[in-house]
Write a structure and sequence with these properties.
single chain, globular
Length: 256
């Protein structure tokens, strides 16, 4: 294999790359997001400098169903996101992620620095309840519930009018930040960066809010409960098409 052929590959292994080149398009991507009040000291401890807490003491637990993901397949993902600030710019820091499909684990870690680990999340509807369930190594570590399609955010039932999806678009298009750590061959860090990105080409197909609850359980290898749920602030459920583009370096720890 010639050098040009090697450099044209998107990923390892060379015989059958784990994922193709992006950007990556998602169709019918479905989110359950439960926002909750947490401990400010725990939030500060979870945010890598130079990120700072935004003062809201808010954390978001997410379960995302992705049935049609170009290059990555059909999978479900769950994790913890913390609203934060970077030099007074509002951002969301992804602190933990768990999912059930190998290509997006490899690609997510290697390209954007997503903190992805193998887990078993599930998003389902039974009766009048939307439920997000997260299992890690055979143990339940999180259960989120929300009234299913409780309050439509894109349609005013009282007045029979269509509402503008700006609020949902603003939430989706906020700058997202990951801490990317990749070791060198001697075990030292070859890459230590804050990586930023914004999703694009977003179409909101449906959006709902409603009452929500969340239970987090302690686990040595999946410490979601270290950001304790003190008070539920409600849930949102939305379905979108969107594109995940490549990211950019926001901060380089090795070359500050």
């Amino acid at each position: 294999m010639k050098i040009a052929d090697i450099l044209d590959k998107a990923s390892m292994p060379i015989a059958s790359p784990a994922y193709p080149k992006g950007p990556y398009r998602y169709i019918d991507r479905e989110f359950l997001v439960v926002s909750y009040e947490s401990d400010p000291d725990a939030i500060r401890a979870a945010l890598p400098e130079p990120l700072e807490p935004d003062g809201s003491n808010t954390v978001m637990f997410e379960v995302i169903r992705m049935p049609d993901s170009a290059g990555f397949g059909d999978y479900t993902e769950s994790g913890i996101v913390i609203p934060a600030k970077y030099h007074d710019k509002p951002v969301n820091f992804t602190q933990q992620m768990f999912l059930d499909d190998a290509p997006p684990i490899f690609g997510g870690r290697e390209i954007w620095g997503f903190p992805k680990k193998l887990g078993h999340p599930k998003l389902s509807v039974k009766g009048a309840t939307l439920t997000g369930h997260l299992e890690f190594d055979g143990v339940t570590i999180a259960i989120a519930t929300m009234g299913y399609k409780y309050q439509h955010l894109l349609y005013d039932v009282e007045h029979g009018t269509q509402c503008h999806p700006d609020a949902v678009l603003k939430k989706l298009q906020k700058t997202q930040v990951n801490l990317k750590l990749i070791p060198d061959v001697d075990g030292s860090l070859a890459i230590a960066q804050l990586v930023a990105y914004e999703v694009s080409d977003v179409t909101v197909k449906g959006a709902w809010s409603g009452p929500a609850s969340l239970q987090l359980f302690h686990h040595a290898n999946a410490p979601v409960a270290e950001l304790p749920m003190l008070k539920s602030l409600g849930g949102v459920h939305f379905i979108t098409d969107l594109t995940l583009p490549y990211g950019r370096v926001m901060y380089d720890y090795l070359n500050p």
